[in-house]
Amino acid sequence: MRKAIVLYFILVYILPAFSQEGFHLDADKKNVTIPFRLINNLIFIPIYINGIELNFLLDTGVEETILLSLEDKNELNLNNVEKVKLRGLGNEESIEGLKSKNNILSVNGYTDNSHSLYIVLDQSFNFSTHIGIPVNGIIGYSFFKNNLVKLNYDKHKITIIKKVLLFEKKSKKDLLQFPFQLSEASLMFKRMSP
């Protein structure tokens, strides 16, 4: 009986908490398509933060979501805000910023219900004038990490696909597979003959 109670607790309370961490497709969606703007080989996507639409630069090299400019979005409400010192923004010195937890980020049925983000207060990091469109922030690899991604540069669309669907719908013959080797010196891909 004790094992059954523990199993019930794990299945009902613990596993759902892990499965909802980060971005996920809404329950009724198998995939979503997100339009993007391509400017100077940079991808910009619209994302809603707590119901307000903002423009984000998509950069998979960035780990955390960063807000840089809110000058045109005065009505944005952020949750659980605290002061922090930010490092790694090009300066060796830390700068003052804010951290906000438990925000809802969403785009076309792709949602994170408990997203943390960092707000840079120093307006010298605002690069909207260099791009030509309002850029409110940068979103990184957390946007992709839980699902598969298909980028179509010609149509300016990103398709997010649940991981399990790839193997349900495609057979191995449909997938292009090739072995590769990472070079220590330059991390280059080397195509090897079978």
Automatic annotation (TrEMBL):
Signal peptide: none annotated. Keywords: Hydrolase. Gene3D superfamilies: Acid Proteases. Residues 54-90 form the Peptidase A2 domain. Its EC number is 3.4.23.-. The keyword Signal does not apply. One of its GO terms (molecular function) is hydrolase activity. The keyword Hydrolase applies. It is an enzyme of class 3 (hydrolase). This is Retropepsin-like aspartic protease. It comes from Flavobacterium myungsuense.
